Each structure stands twice: as structure tokens, then as C-alpha cells.
Amino acid sequence: MNREAGPSSFELARNRRRGKILAVVGTLLFGVGVWGLWMDLEWIAQPFYAYAWWGYILVLDGFVALRRGHSLFTARRKHLIPVLIGSVTFWYFFELLNLRFKNWYYVGVYESPVIEYPFSLVCFSTVLIGMFETFEAVTALGLFRRWRGEPGRLPGWASYAVQAVGALMVTLSLVFPTYLAPLVWGSLSFLLDPWNYRRGARSILRDFEARDFGLVARLLLAGLICGGFWESMNFLAPQKWIYTVRGLENFKLFEMPLLGFLGFPALALDGMAFYSLIAYWFLNNETWEHPADLRYGLRSHSAFSPRAFYRIIPIQLAFGILVLVGVRQVNMASIRLDLWDLPSMTPALATLLEAEGIRRPIRLVRETKDPERRRMLLSRSGLEPEEFQRLLEEAELYAFKGIGAAHGALLREVGVTRVSELADWSAEDLHSALVRIADQEGARLPRLDMVRVWVLAARDRGFVMRTARGE
Fold first, then answer.
1. Cα distance between residue 59 and residue 52, in whole Å
2. Residue range 192-243, pLDDT digits in tens
3. Whole-angstrom Cα distance, residue 28 to residue 404?
4. N or C terminus of the chain: which is more exposed, having fewer CB within 10 Å?
């Protein structure tokens, strides 16, 4: 059986010291990210999500190390690279499916793929470790530890039935993507976990068999907590994703439909099943978890050596880049927005604003919410009040829901010059008008679902939070 011996008292003390350092570094990293976002420093604000998420991960790992003397970064480092690289492959499986679903799209991305692709890989390498660290933190707090029963056995047919349900979920989501795409969340665990179970790998079905319901509950809770943190940080970031799930656009928290948060616990199950498969194939069937957390042992298995995993890293990264090429063509709505993208911006005014620490249109919108600040900028701009107001309206429109410069220019062509005017249109009519203009000019056309996001947000439909108007 593959059960690790517990750490010695020396190792526990050493790991706790390392945990303090990790917690401090994570706090500083998160703080630098928030400060840079507030100050609108390009090299921090644009990749803010990476600062925030890596800070979160290090703080949690430090907390777990302090609490238990045993964490991923301090005691199980051999899992770090497989978790990070596996996370890229794991997430881009869903990005690949989203080329069909079109349930979310990206705004404000780097214009150069040479910068965008590495940044995306760094961000999406955190998906699995973020959920795992949250699970470890919840476990360290002792939540749901008494949710246990006497171990039993599942019927022989149970794993096959679960797998059949998973296959049905994926099939329905692909055949009827408009309304059944959400079924994909959780489908990977339904497909992979039974395979893990039958081969003696770490398995959620084995957790049920061991009647360790608390472990499953902690994993689900970790997914939900991660989802809340992901979406809140994404909402603040200049480069982010926006959801367009049909029928759920009216009720959003941050950029996510409220019901969509139910997908995060399912994603945690998917992540556990996926990494358990990696561990079974490449890591001698050893779990990444604390050695005391499983109620059952795992038999050693060495289908491939750990070196084999490192040899296929280029293949996994190539898969991610190929998917990113598709994402950039299908699900990228706008590139990062700068002051120079505003039609009414002059070189002298851009220089003035940059000297005042205003480098992006969204910062200009927020700064001018203060009447005194607005009067000062107006007086120094050399513009007439009407010209300055037009500039602010352009900034607000182009920044709103990641509309961007290209789509903002199309909106101006059809007579939409301010955010409030979006509310006067139906999404279908506005999209049709944009189609006519785009066909004439050969411009890239926004999808109908993107236009629907703009119109509904301009109408304040449902619980739709936004920052583009400085609120």
C-alpha cells in the first residue's frame, strides 16, 4: 500500500517556518497586485489576475503549513510541476469545448500573441493548484471531519453507470450547446473517476465507498470558494472573461450568472479525477494530499516513470497554444484599451493625462467622477467643455464590458456614442445594424451574445455588477 510515513518533529518545525515565509510572500504579492491595479501601473494592472491568484495560492499553502506542518510547497514538491502543467491541459480541455459552446469570451487581452500566450499559460496553470490549496485549507480547519460512516462496497455496476452518465452529459452538451452546455461541468469526473476507481487509483467513488462524505463535501466547498475568488478577481482585472450563458444573462454576480457558481464544485471534482489519473500513470499512484487524509491506501503503480511526464510537457504546452489560437479567433472580443484608442484624444492631452497617472480610459472615467478632479483636468486639457464631455463618453463606452476600440468604433458608426444609448436598442436590432456596418468596412463583427451582454448591462438588468462606469 502507498501510505507515506508521517513527518518527523524536525520536518514539521521546518515546514512551519517555510509556511510563514510563503504566507508573507503571498500577502505581499497580492498586495502589490491590488496596489498596482489601483495605481494603474501597466506591468501590474494588466496581469493583475496572476498577481492575485498566485498570492492567494501562496497564502493558503503557508496557512496549511503553519497549521499542519505539511503542505504542497513544503513537503510534497514533487507534485508541483505535474499539478501546474496538468492544470494547463485540464483547463484547455474546457477552452476547446467552449469553441463550440461560446459560453464565455475574453476582453482586454494583450495585442501581441507573443505576450498573451505565456501570460495565459501562467494564469491557467493555477486552476488545479488553486482548488487543491483551498481544499487543503478547508481540511486544515477541520470542517466536516465527522461526516463519516462505516466503510462499505459499491455494487459492481455502479462505476459503469456513473461513466455512462458522464458520456451522456458530454454528448448532450455538445449536441445542444445553447441550453445544455453547463452539463459539461462535472462530466470529466463522471468519465474519469470510475476508471480510477476500477484500477485502484485515488477516486471520489472510493471516498463514497469509504463513507468519507466529509472529504467530498470539503472538495465541493473548495470549488465554490475558488469560484468566488476567481470571479471577484476577474471582475476587477482589465483583462478578463465575460459569460454569455443563454437564459442566465439577467442574473449575474460579477461577470458570472448566479447559477453558474454551481459549476465550480463540479469543476473541483473534475480536477481531482483528472490529476488522480496523472498520478496513477506517472507518479507511482501517489496522491498529492496530506498522507493522513485518505481513509484507504493506494497500491503502487508505475505505468510510466515521472520522467515520462516531463518528456510530454512540450506536447501539453503545444496543445494549450493550439487551443489558444482558436480562442483568439473565436472567443476574444477586444484587445487592451489605451488612451490613444479614443477618437477625440490628442497627443498633448494624452501626455497630460499620463503625467497625472491616467494611462487607460477606464481610469479617466473613474478620476472624473470627482467634480474637483474633473474641473482641474478640463481646465488643463485645452478642450471646450463639450469636447471634454465627448471624450469622457468615448472612454466610458469603449471601456464598458470590454467593448474595446474596434467594436466601439462600429457602435459610433450606428449612432451609439454613450453607454446609456445601448439601452435603447434590442440586442438583435443593434447586432443587425453592426453587421451592415462591418460588412461595408470589413471590420470584425461582435457576436450577438456579446451585444446582448452590452445591452442588458446598460439596462441594469438583474444583479449585474460592473466597474466600467466607475461605480
1. 11
2. 999 999 999 999 999 999 999 999 999 999 999 999 999 999 999 999 999 9
3. 32
4. N
**b/e map of 445-463 (b: 16 or more CB within 10 Å)?**
bbebbbbbbbbbbbeeeee
Exposure class string for 206-243: b at 16+ Cβ within 10 A, else e: bbbbbebebbbebbbbbbbbbbebbbbbbbbbbbbbbb
Of 250, 226, 215, the C-alpha closest to 145 is 215
pLDDT tens, position by position, 109-165: 999 999 999 999 999 999 999 999 999 999 999 999 889 888 889 999 999 999 999
In 220-343, which ranges are E strands? 240-243, 252-253, 256-257
The residue written with cell numbers 471646450 in the block is 384
Whether residue 1 is predicted with pLDDT greater than 70 in this model: the reply is no
What pLDDT digit, counting tens, does each position of 54-66 carry?
A: 999 999 999 999 9
Cα 33 to Cα 36, 51, 265, distances in angstroms: 5, 5, 27
Encoded amino acid at 98, one letter: N
CA distances from 461 to 30, 189, 193, 232, 466 (A): 32, 35, 40, 19, 12
Residue 186 sits at φ, ψ, to 5 deg, of 100, -20
pTM beyond 0.85: the answer is yes
Round to whole Å and give the CA distance between 131 and 268. 6
Q: Render pLDDT for 386-417 as a digit per residue (tens, 0 to 9).
A: 999 999 999 999 999 999 999 999 999 999 99
Q: C-alpha 221: how far from its chain's center?
A: 17
Q: Is 211 left (phi over 0), alpha (psi -120 to 50) or beta?
A: left
Q: How far apart are CA 345 and CA 394, in angstroms?
A: 10
Cα–Cα distance for residue pair 109/116, rounded to 1 Å: 7
Q: What is the pLDDT of residue 40?
A: 86
CB 107 within 8 A of CB 249: no
The band of 463, judged by pLDDT with boundaries at 50, 70 and 90, is very low
248: which residues sit within 8 A by CB, 6+ positions away?
257, 258, 259, 260
- The secondary element (H helix, E strand) that includes residue 228 is helix 213-236
pLDDT greater than 70 at residue 176: yes
Nearest to 15 by CA among 23, 4, 26: 23
On the 0-12 / 13-18 / 19+ scale of CB atoms within 10 A, 311 is exposed
Q: Is 284 left (phi over 0), alpha (psi -120 to 50) or beta?
A: left
